[in-house]
Amino acid sequence: MLEGIDAFDVTLQLAGRLSQPDIRIESDMDDLLSAGLKRVIEQQQTALKSRLKREISQRTEDEIGAVKSGFSGFQGIERELENRLEFGSDLLNELPGNFG
Question: Is the pLDDT of residue 95 over 80?
Answer without folding.
Answer: no
